[in-house]
From TrEMBL:
SUPFAM superfamilies, alphabetized: alpha/beta-Hydrolases
InterPro entries: AB_hydrolase_fold, TEII, TesA-like, Thioesterase
Domain Thioesterase TesA-like: 26-247
Organism: Actinophytocola glycyrrhizae
Annotated family: Belongs to the thioesterase family.
Source species, domain of life: Bacteria
Assigned keywords, A-Z: Hydrolase
Lineage: Bacteria, Bacillati, Actinomycetota, Actinomycetes, Pseudonocardiales
Name of the molecule in the record: Thioesterase II family protein
Length: 250
């Protein structure tokens, strides 16, 4: 029996209550990211959308837990949690590594007879598109240089050496999981896919993101924004508008 996840749920966090919401949105953070990245999104979409943000093991209040080693295992664990909250129209939004997880979770839900309303993938190339990336093999300084270049980590964290060293294991684990992930080129879901990308994203070209169309038998839409990998931080109103439109579409 499905039920509404409480705000203190280990895996899915609710920052703003929306008991009368007509739609539920599960947000999945980027590599090294945490549920709190979506605090503002939750507030902006409430009360018409009930937003739940995934909290991966190994960060914030779960920092003492071991990180999950592979995308496959993490998707298995998250899909079981997401299935519990599928008692109303459910969509998935994932940025970067979260986009891969959104797709993998959707395939598991559909295999169990639960079809997501829509899947919104951001800043990530299609599952069938492979790059030989080995950031997770760099030393700590190399890993820090990578995340600084993407400008996706809280500035306070980047300036606090002790705090930075504390979060590096989770970031490295996430990079290892996503860089060793190999999606099946012909694997599809029936849910619509909405793909978003920054035009200067070093991690995903527009052509690589356009190939998400190959992974749905339903409708597909692509939106290109000015900016790089974390374009969405500079285009919050536009991204929120796109999310609202995707959730409102039949």
């Amino acid at each position: 029996m499905t039920h509404t996840a409480p705000a203190t749920d280990l895996w899915l966090r609710r920052y703003h209550t929306a008991p009368d919401a007509t739609h539920r949105l599960v947000c999945l953070p980027h590599a090294g990211g945490s549920a709190s990245y979506f605090f503002g999104v939750a507030g902006s979409l409430a009360p018409t959308v009930d937003v739940l943000a995934a909290q991966y093991p190994g960060r914030q209040d779960r920092r003492t837990e071991p990180c999950v080693a592979t995308i496959t295992e993490l998707a298995d664990l998250l899909a079981a949690q997401v299935a519990r909250v599928a008692d109303k129209p459910l969509s998935l939004f994932g940025h970067s590594m979260g986009a891969v997880l959104a797709f993998e979770i959707a395939t598991r839900l559909e295999a169990d007879g639960v079809r997501p309303h829509s899947i919104i993938v951001s800043g990530r190339r299609a599952p069938g598109t492979v790059r030989d990336e080995r950031v997770h093999l760099r030393d700590d300084d190399g890993l820090v240089a990578e995340i600084r270049s993407l400008s996706g980590t809280d500035a306070k964290v980047m300036q606090d050496e002790e705090l930075l060293r504390m979060v590096l294991p989770a970031i490295r684990s996430d990079y290892r999981a996503v860089e060793t992930y190999r999606g099946e080129p012909g694997r599809t879901v029936s849910a619509p896919i909405h793909a978003l990308v920054g035009e200067r994203d070093p991690k995903a070209t527009v052509d690589e993101v356009r190939r998400w169309e190959e992974h749905t038998t339903g409708p597909f839409a692509l939106k290109v924004f000015p900016g790089g990998h974390f374009y969405l931080d500079r285009h919050v109103p536009e991204v929120l508008g796109l999310i609202r439109a995707a959730l409102g579409a039949a």
